[in-house]
């Protein structure tokens, strides 16, 4: 993140932000290939642009010379505009993942859906997984994405890729988590590595981490009843 901010400070100049519109193509050219800019738009604060870059929200002055990394909080309405923007970013990113690349435990009478970044070597991930039938009974569909904490190339990542390549992925994940058994067949799939990189980009740094349907992050284990209560409270 520090490298990104330094790059912004050094490369963005005033003519990029002249007027009310931003030349996004020019901005991308100046930042280079390492910067993945999703959008640049005026923020709620006059004189600042909200920039979605590399999965994060930062703020840039309209002269292109100053960068702010932090949250914009509305004291009157008691909401974080930065958090709301981050939630939208996560929601949009997860919507691009095909169901075939997830491991889905579908609730018969679905009322809610949560995405869970998981690691087969994580004890609390196993604890949560054992409660998946209870989540489903409460109308909560659980969609898993892979986040091997040891990183790409680790033994955990390789084992998880075998699970993600299995013909019956839901059974394979349960066997991996609860019995430490893995499919013998490997494959050349890249889903686990791609999902790990996405999670890292979206601010995932621990497992289990849930992403709710509106993009909100909930880190750590939650019981089915606690999660249901929280999801219901968000509707009020």
> In terms of per-residue confidence, which ranges show pLDDT below 50 for 5 or more consecutive residues?
1-20
User: Radius of gyration from the CA trace?
Assistant: 20 Å
Strand order across the biggest sheet? 7-9-8-10-11
CATH fold node name of the largest domain: Glutaredoxin
Q: How many domain modules?
A: 2
Features:
236 residues; alpha+beta; Nuclear Transport Factor 2, Chain: A; Glutaredoxin; five-stranded mixed β-sheet; four-stranded antiparallel β-sheet; globular
Short précis:
The chain has 236 residues and is an alpha+beta fold. Helix content is 38%, strand content 20%. The protein has helices at residues 2-11, 24-31, 81-95, 123-130, 132-137, 155-164, 169-179, 191-201, 224-233, and strands spanning 37-42, 48-53, 56-61, 67-68, 73-74, 79-80, 103-105, 112-118, 140-146, 209-211, 217-219.
């Amino acid at each position: 993140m520090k490298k990104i901010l330094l790059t912004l400070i050094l490369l963005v100049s005033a003519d990029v932000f002249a007027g009310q519109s931003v030349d996004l193509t020019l901005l991308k050219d100046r930042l280079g290939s390492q910067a993945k800019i999703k959008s640049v738009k005026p923020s709620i604060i006059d004189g600042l642009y909200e920039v979605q870059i590399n999965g994060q929200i930062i703020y840039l002055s309209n002269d292109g010379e100053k960068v702010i990394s932090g949250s914009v909080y509305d004291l009157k309405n008691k909401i974080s505009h930065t958090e709301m923007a981050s939630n939208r970013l996560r929601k949009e990113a997860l919507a691009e993942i095909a169901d075939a690349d997830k491991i889905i435990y579908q609730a018969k009478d679905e009322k809610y859906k949560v995405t869970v970044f998981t690691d087969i070597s994580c004890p609390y991930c196993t604890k949560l997984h054992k409660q998946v039938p209870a989540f489903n009974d409460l109308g909560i569909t659980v969609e898993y994405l892979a986040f091997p904490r040891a990183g790409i190339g680790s033994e955990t990542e390789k084992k998880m890729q075998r699970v993600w390549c299995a013909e019956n992925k839901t059974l394979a994940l349960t066997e991996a988590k609860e019995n430490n058994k893995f499919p013998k067949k490997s494959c050349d799939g890249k889903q686990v590595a791609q999902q790990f990189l996405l999670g890292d980009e979206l601010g995932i740094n621990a497992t289990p981490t849930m992403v709710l349907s509106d993009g909100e992050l909930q880190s750590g284990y939650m019981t089915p009843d606690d999660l249901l209560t929280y999801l219901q409270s968000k509707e009020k």
